[in-house]
Amino acid sequence: MYPQIITYLLTFIKFQEQIIRTLLTLLIGKSMFDKPKDQQPVNKPYRKLQVDDLPIIEIPEKLNYRNLLTEYQEKHGKSLKPVRRHKNAKVSVPKGMKCPKCGAPSDYLYANNGDKGQYQCKVCSCLFSDKNRFSKEYFEMSSLF
Asked: Is 110 helix (H, G, I), strand (E, B) or coil?
C-alpha cells in the first residue's frame, strides 16, 4: 500500500510542477525552464601583451629673470615694474619665494588664485604652487644637468 501512495504522490507532484511552469511562463512571457542551447564558445581575439613606451622627460628651460627684464626693456622701451600690491590685500606672497623657472623674487609674483597657493610670475608667466614639492625637485634636479 505504501509504494502505491508514494507513486501516486510523485505523479501528483510532477503534475503540480507542470502547472507551476505553465503559470510562470504565462506571467513572464518566456519560459525560464528551457535549457540553454549548446552554443559554441565565443572566440574573441584578445590583445597581445604590449609594453607602453617610456615617458618623454624634458629638461625644463632654466631662465634668468635679469636677462628677461633687459629683453623686455629693449623690446618695449620701458622697464617691467614689479607687481603693485593693494594695501588691504588678504593674500600676500611670502618674501623668500622665488619663481622656479626664472628665479624672479617675490616682488614679481602674483597670488594667482587667492589664498589657494598658486602663484604666477610676471616675468616669465610661469604658474607654480609653493606646495608642489615635485616641481621644485624637478627644477633643482634640472640645474644639475
From this structure: strand
